[in-house]
Write a structure and sequence with these properties.
28% strand, alpha+beta, 3 domains, 33 strands, BirA Bifunctional Protein, domain 2, five-stranded mixed beta sheet, nine-stranded mixed beta sheet, Rossmann fold
Amino acid sequence: MNIQHLSGERFKEKPSDANIISQIYLLRGGYIKYVANGIYSLLMPAKRIINKIENIVRSEMDKIGGQEVLMPVVLPKELWEESERYQTVGRELLRLKDRGGKEMLLAMTHEEAAVALVRDDAISHNKYPFMIYQLQTKFRDEPRCKGGLIRVREFTMKDAYSFHTTQEDMCAFYNICKDAYFNIFNKIGLNAIAVGSDTGMMGGSVAHEFMLLSDAGEDNIAICDTCGYMDNVEVANTKISNISLQDANKELIHTPSTTDIESLSKLTGFSADRIIKAAIFGVEGEKKPCIVFIRGDYEVNEQKLKKVLGKNVYPFESDIEQLKMGFIGPCDIDNNIFSALLFDESLSDCKNMLCGANKADYHIKGVSCGRDFEIIKYYNLYQVKDGDICLKCQSKLKIKKGIEIDNIFQLGKKYTQSMNMFYTDENGQRKNPFMGCYGIGIGRAMASVIEQHHDEYGPVWPFAIAPWHIHICVLNGSEEMRNFAANIYENLKKSGYEVIIDDRKVSAGVQFSDADLLGIPYRIIIGNKGFVSGETEIISRDKSFKKIVKCDDLLNEIKAIIEKEKAKL
């Protein structure tokens, strides 16, 4: 490939709307081009990288018995009605009608399609276990697209679905798949960790996310450095040290214009863990919002709240006429205002607390939970925070940012039961098989590699997935030098090496800047001064290798370097 003809522009300026490293370099390096919100075109360098990641994924899936298939992106509404997800999944599912008025959807995941594909064939226990997988486009109408390929609406995913006759067999294969995922990430250059996660709309009993620890991540992970415990904060729990002081008399106090925990604490002397906070959420399908009372030093975990309510929730941003926002408390509150009134278990046995008085500019101190308002049940709705206690070893948890690269799920019989998939066992009885689901976001994996492998000039691609392996920079010089460079390029190309050449008549600075953005592992620099002396230079993108070689030895030297790298794969 000659860079002169390579589609896509490489430029120095940081894109104004790019906020994380991978997004910046993918745009600056001519890898992707914005089309619409959360939708990008991939240019040649990105497509070559994606192809290599996909081939690594295929190799690992094939090793554990995967059968590659391809299912449609557009699916009929009826399939998702069978699983009852058509009614429960929110606006992330893009619904549409074809020209005949038939209701269709763009698949955001393919559990229903997978069951429909195999249920008429896998009717005997002799067929089991088996796993099918695909590399296919998905569409998820994300409300908050950002970070380039980290959070998009249209994306390529490897999704796999395994089928088993027993729970034990499903769990065993789940662990096999988990190991295969570690192999994939090691090969593409990612130091991923597996953390427990919420099953979300997928359902099932157990789920794990593979995460790359990164400040660019949107997920928060609770980690214990002592025992190795790791969970997404969506599902993480802790041992809460409840505030059990002596009961005190209730007293109405004046707290003018004090609607946040920090200012309220300064005014009253009550620390955040002695304040009862109100959090209001809209509930999908409900006309009334729900309210959660929680201790002031914790936040409500929306995923946990969704599980309790069985419905999607979202922050409620409107005022409620009957209440004084910012001064809401559980004492004498009108339950009819809300679809649900819930108390977090962080308030269990708490006494002598401070809460809103449901009256503008007033709070009540000396409040005790259960004495001054009725609590029928406490719910686990809190989100763990930095410094909380690890349930396994009693050490302190740390909260770190992570990029979710993929999810795996133990789905059990959620889909096979609802979609009437049966097999006949050894005794002639009809049973529903157990099912597992395993996904990897291919574009997000590529972006995550940049987050882990970059310097101040651009990506530093691992050899296994680099768009090319050799980048020849031909600096301004004699015609003889340029002919020499062209012969080296043609020889490498004919020998099957992945090579790109830059023989543009531009400055060395421009060539090197573009080479840094392309991040190719090895660079050959052919300049006039060195060429006159019969020398060229080979350097690695990560700056760990640099060597001056004779022109006559260049081909053998670079081939030996590349063959050594290939042997490591």
